[in-house]
Amino acid sequence: MITAMKTELAKAKRSVSNVLWSRRSQKVKVMVMGRSLSDGLLAKLVIYLLLSIVAYLYLQPILYMVSTMFKNMSDLLDPTVKWIPREITWENVTKAIKGLQYPEALRNTALISVTCSLVQVIICAMTGYALARLALPFKGLFTALIILTFLIPPQVIIIPLYVIFSKLGLLNSIFVFLIPAIFGQGLKGALFILIFRQFFKAQPPSLEEAAKLDGASTARLFFGIMLPLARSACLVVFLFSFIWYWNMYYEPSMFLTKGFTPLSIRLDMLEEVLNPSLLGNTRTIVNPITESTKMAAAFLIILPPILVFMFLQRWFVSGIERTGIVE
Amino acid sequence: MQAKARVREARLYLGKRYGMGLLFMLPWIIGFAMFVLIPISWSLFMSFNKVQVAVGGFKYEWIGMRNYRDAFLKDNVFPIELITYIQEMLLMVPIIVIFALLISLMLNQKFPGRFIYRALFFLPVIFATGQVLSELFLQGAGDIPFLEQYNLLPLVEEYVGKQFAETVMAVLGKAILILWYSGVQILIFIAGFQTISPTIYEAVRIDGASPWDSFWKITLPACVPFISLNVLYTIIDLFTFPLNPVLKHIKDNMFKVDTGYGYASALAWIYFGLIFVLIALVLWLFNRSLRTRRVH
After folding, report:
1. Which chain B residues are Cβ-neighbours of A164 within 8 angstroms?
2. Which of A69, A111, A160, A315 is the most buried (most CB within 10 A)?
């Protein structure tokens, strides 16, 4: 009798522990594999791995740039030195600073990017707001024209623009970029107008109705309420605009060729500055002597926007998600 | 008398109704006239002329369509470069968009540290334009490291044929720099995913759909508008790709004595026309696919 009960008890214990074990293993399985594709440990590991590999490939040119920048002559010619130079030399950096006339060019570039971007934020916001909310004749036509200006390659209109600017006496000054920006035709301005239009369209109209009932004028309403409301869109537009003005090369290569030159043009001329004997025809050959200096110069050029981006990164990415740029 | 009063009343009414809107649009309207309308009609006019730089301005000589005809018949660089570049572009656009889709799908998952990765993949946007990029490219920093090790050329030639092998190899040679052009597209996709409500995924999961199914049946269809947006953005972006040989050819012709501004304008217009056709084609295709899906 007792033995029968004992065996019964042992059986029950076993089955309980079996159930417990299978449940625990189920838990482990869920933890590792996940309920859906994305929340398991395994999936996360795979994602980390894939992203890290791609990120490595992605960032390799930058790593190459930084490593070449610190190489001296013998390291550069030595094929056994691939990534880490034997000794770190700052010579290339000082040479690049001198060759680019870095402080002056930096000031020019920063002046163009900051002022033009600020102007562009305000003007594009105004235009976008008018398209989204204000009564306007031919609204569809205006929108279509804005999209069209985005599609026109700069090469089509660069010669007439050059003539217009030279007639107005604006060449080789900041106004070549500032005046179009004031009139809503800054670099990729059409895109920014559309971003603002999308943003203002997504706002609830009750806010404006309330302000109108309180007797606010349209200008007051826009500058006092709508523009501060669009902070995230403003930040996104400002950053994009800043970066694109900073990096633009084609337009300044036509309009700003002497005197007031930005960094991108100086980089273009660096080879001739470093090697005055090689007049002309220097673009297509790679000169190992100046290679590391050029890499140092390139790094010096992208350093400020990277710092700005790192500083504003957090607001930027969430800003893009909140702007509703994509509808 | 009465008619005049009515006109004035109408004008007043229109002013009251549209005044503020027009005022807000005014800078753009002026800018459009000055910096787009005038230059674009001017360059169209120049493309039908032989333009010579003379003392105190340009000298125009009307030659009709000859510039356009010369571009295809006399110029032995332009048509080849144009066709090569369009071939490259047709290969680059899908690569960029698919790459952006895959990366953004991964970046959209919730895992610790995704903010760092998102920043990392956006980083190239900061400098993937202009001089720095072409400098890097000149030094051959943008190729995939295993390309040379495995000697892919015969393989590629075998699969796509000899005439396209060169294009494929050229694209592979700057693969990483091309992928750098996907920063904005990744952002657009990530923002696009936020518009899909998570309750839909919840619902299909309860109905027993696997993640694989829910990607094909929900994520991808909801992404079609963003895919089309990205395709358009990529095409426009590649227009002004700094390594674009067509643009270089146009610029070179601008300052040549025997061809000059007129010929360069004609080249630019041909280029513009081709891209415009390409964009219209893409828009039409996507519109059609959207419409057929709505019918089903």
Report:
1. 34-35, 38-39
2. A69
